[in-house]
Structures are given as C-alpha cells and as structure tokens.
Amino acid sequence: MLNKLFILFICLFGLSLSSFAQGGNDRIPPEDRINECVLFIPNAFTPNGDGINDRFGIKVNPNCFMVSFNMKIFDRWGRMIFDADDYREPYWWDGNFDGNRMKEGTYTYHIIAEFELPDRSDRVEIRRQGFFTLIR
C-alpha cells in the first residue's frame, strides 16, 4: 500500500531532483522545475455560506512568489463570468455574477500564472485550463 501511495504522490505533485557534481552543482532548467510551483485547482466547490469550499480558486506552493496571474471563468455557453487579471486582486470566484448566484453546473477556467522559483533563480509560467462543478 505504501508503494502505491508514494507513486500517487509523485504523480500528483511532481518530482524535483537536484544533482551535485564535484566542485558545484548543476542547475535544472526552469521548464523542468515547473512542478516546484505546482497549482492545486479543485474540480468542484460549494458556495453555500458554510465556510467550507465556498470559493473556487487556486492553491500554490507557499515558497513560490506569484509575479502575475490571470484567471477567466466561463459558463457553459462560453460567456465570461469572472476575470481576475492581477495577483493582488482576489484570485478566487464566489459563484456570483453581476450580483446574482450562478446556477449549479459545469464551468470552464483558463489560468495563466507566472512565479519566481523558491530559490529566486528564475521564473516559470504555468498555463492550465479545465472544468469544475459548482454545487449548491
């Protein structure tokens, strides 16, 4: 069972490797280090006011510094109902649009985020798109 859990952890969160050579170390290129700033994006949320999963948003490795962020959310008809274009703004959605509660259903997200790596050596851009469910 432990081996299965270990493999699952690597698949979900990536694997970071460091290589040390005599007299120094070798850097891994930023494109191979993108998993250091992995995004957790939920596949459902429940904006019902109970304080649990009331907002749709991302979670990021706290050691990564967000430089830029854009998240767009679309309803099933392709209408953009949320656009966060600044990492200093709230980068979560509360399930409302124009003051109205949105219906239960499937929504689409498009996320582009840029981070400084934990060692501040470089920046990586992460692009994600997918679906999530709003449950009332």
Task: Summarize it.
The protein is mostly beta strands and 136 residues long.
How would you explain this protein's 3D organization?
The protein has one helix at residues 2-13; strands spanning 19-21, 24-26, 39-40, 44-45, 56-57, 59-60, 65-74, 80-84, 92-93, 96-97, 100-101, 105-116, 123-134. 9% of the residues lie in helices and 43% in strands. Residues 1-26 have low confidence and may be disordered. Strand 12 and strand 13 (123-134) form a beta hairpin. It is built from 1 helix and 13 strands. It has one domain (30-134): Sandwich (Immunoglobulin-like). It has a 5-stranded mixed β-sheet with strand order 4-13-12-7-8, with no helix packed on it. Residues 1-21 form the signal peptide. It comes from Thermaurantimonas aggregans.
Chain-wise SSE layout:
Layout: H1 2-13, E1 19-21, E2 24-26, E3 39-40, E4 44-45, E5 56-57, E6 59-60, E7 65-74, E8 80-84, E9 92-93, E10 96-97, E11 100-101, E12 105-116, E13 123-134
Parallel strand pairs: 4-13
Antiparallel strand pairs: 1-2, 3-6, 5-9, 7-8, 7-12, 10-11, 12-13
